[in-house]
Amino acid sequence: MGYGDVPLLLLAVVATLFAAGIGCIDAALTRVSRVAVDGFVRAGRPRAASLATIVADPGRYLALLLLLRIVGEMVAAACVTVIAVHTYGAGFIAVGFGALVGTLFAYIFVGVVFRTLGRQHAPVVALATAGLTSWLGRMFGPLPRLLIAFGNAVTPGPGYRDGPFATEAELRDLVDLAEENDVIERGERDMIASVFELGDTLVREVMVPRPDMVYIESVKTVAQAISLALRSGFSRIPVTGETVDDVVGIAFLKDMVGREREGWDTRPVSDVMRPPALVPESKHADVLLREMQASRTHMAIVIDEYGGTAGLVTIEDILEEIVGEITDEYDAEIVPVEWINDDTARVTARLGVDDLRELFGTDELPGSDDVETVGGLLANALGRVPLPGATVTVGVVTLTAESAAGRRNQIGTVVVRRSPGQAEDSTAGGSASVSAGDTDGGDTPRGEVSRGDVSRGDAARAGNHRAGRERAGAGRAGKKRTDGTGSTGSDTADAAGGDNRGGQGSDVGATDPVTRRAASGART
Asked: Does the reported pTM lie above 0.70?
């Protein structure tokens, strides 16, 4: 190395220090919290306003800092390579020396020393360099965004507006690391993970399905609606028109009680109902939560792609996806999974198929891609509406319909038995075998008189009521979870006679309180 290489050496040192300083600022900005920035602004600290602007749009400045850091590292590596060429001549030795020295200096000073300092003193470093960062953003303008746009254009698949510099996976890893270091508790980690998952959760995954809704016809009286509310324990009840697909309003118990005191007990419930909030089932749960908070709405009717009623959802349903089950003194616990022995379990018909796979450690469930619940899988493989005692083998498990529940006699629980010897004999649709007790001397199963033939698709839909997220063994108890849910069909009450007429059947003289109850919704 001669005297002519001294400027190159100085330039390499300056470029390395520049890249290290930029890396320190980058680490500080990714670490500083908005709470600390707000504290600086309230305290009137110098450059606090600039830092607040940076934190409000971090992607733009982080992309710029990454670009400048790479420039500094490349300039330093190039200078070292030129010095090596002057010393050893052009060849692989010079290239290897330049790459080795450049890598060591970039890793030690830029990647470790200065980034560690930035993380250790994130608020101080971010505040002290806020003016410089803001000035760099104004100087280079949209250059980083243009480079990111070009990179996204030549990259297959969807790109990232702010570049792939801070991903959700990195944040999840940071949360896991915080738990490992005992910075946060396991429950806090699970809650944070649930917040991430909420952005990918659709309303149809958390709603209470239509068959479980308790609703009342608009022609019923206020007194009948109050009787239904008291018996079911729900303070908000959907009001329907001609059919359940025609939800015309929501009846609030507080409104009805107030009007009853004014002598409105014989007037139709449609006179006191409020307009319903309608949302599509494909809406994301986090978006709906913000909308319901802004509009101060606690219940929304979920509409499917055909304009019919798919179910209903409340704020509490969405919050349960973050904090877990919310129960009160009236909630009756229903265990979704009960192990009878090592190879046999009793599960609710609404248990998810994915949970069933996890319980029995198998992916061999033919036909499970078309359904969502164990009840739907049973009906799909059986080819008709299942009755108690019906048995079907699907892959390596045997499903047996055990009990009927509700006024429509839907299957409530299913016994699942591991049958490894029958795994090879299962077909793509599952091999169904109906037990002898399920028929009555003919081809028509007992209890299906005059029902006619039920197609495979109708049977699957009958059993496949979308169940939200019943997590096996995690206490998501299969209970109805909204203000207006608790029994199947229309469950209108007659205050005078106490009869409970429904569009699917009747429950004459039913005066006992309804014990099946949602986890969400106000009790009276």
From this structure: no
